[in-house]
Write a structure and sequence with these properties.
single chain, mainly alpha, 2 domains, two-stranded antiparallel sheet, about 65% helix, globular
């Protein structure tokens, strides 16, 4: 048993090491030229104790950076990653989808519960940010030509997105306590992909206006 535990711990440590070996966005581009919300978001993702988010930060950079295209340079870095790394990314992203689904279900079930009113208002914001991080992960998986993993995750995301539309639909008209950076971020999501539920138009989630 100790040998098995030690082997698992070694694999986890190696995964975290590989994540931390990825460059930070500010090592690839001059992020001081980014709009304020993007600079803050990239810093937050790259510095997260959740080492998987170092990869997420690269996907976010590809999606929102308006300077010279960085896709080729990032793809060259990704080619050095072993298959075990990508398997870990897939598994962790799958469990993240399950976690977001649970949060969306909680909103659906408790959106009229007064005792949780403040927490309920915050939860869709966190769900939207988490969902967008998965979008950044998908960009990286596609860039690494891991199409099978991408297809499997996109299949699971269909059910998640339906549930999330239900959740924000129940809360249509809510005055969400967005901070300025998050509001700018989710408005930028809407500008690039006007049909995704987690984008914000004005101060409301696009999904709250979509049919259930």
């Amino acid at each position: 048993m100790p040998d098995i535990v030690g082997s698992i711990q070694d694999k986890i440590a190696e995964f975290h090491r590989l994540c931390r070996s990825l460059p930070r966005p500010d090592e690839l581009v001059n992020t001081s030229f980014c709009v304020n919300w993007l600079q803050k978001l990239l810093e937050k993702q790259a510095a997260s104790p959740n080492s998987r988010k170092r990869l997420v930060a690269l996907g976010t950079l590809i999606r929102f950076w308006t300077g010279p295209d960085v896709s080729d340079s990032i793809k060259a870095i990704l080619t050095d990653m072993p298959s075990s790394f990508w398997e870990n990314i897939f598994i962790r992203t799958y469990y993240e989808i399950m976690s977001i689904t649970e949060k969306a279900c909680y909103v659906c079930e408790h959106h009229e519960t007064p005792i949780d009113a403040n927490a309920i208002k915050l939860m869709p914001i966190q769900v939207a940010e988490d969902r967008d991080e998965i979008e950044s992960t998908l960009i990286i998986l596609k860039l690494a030509d891991l199409h099978e993993y991408t297809k499997l995750l996109e299949r699971d995301l269909q059910a998640l997105d339906k549930r999330c539309c239900d959740a924000v639909g129940f809360m249509a008209g809510t005055q969400y306590p967005f901070n300025l950076h998050t509001l700018d971020y989710l408005n930028a999501v809407n500008q690039r992909r006007p049909t995704v539920w987690w984008g914000v138009l004005g101060d409301q989630f696009v999904g709250s206006k979509q049919p259930a």
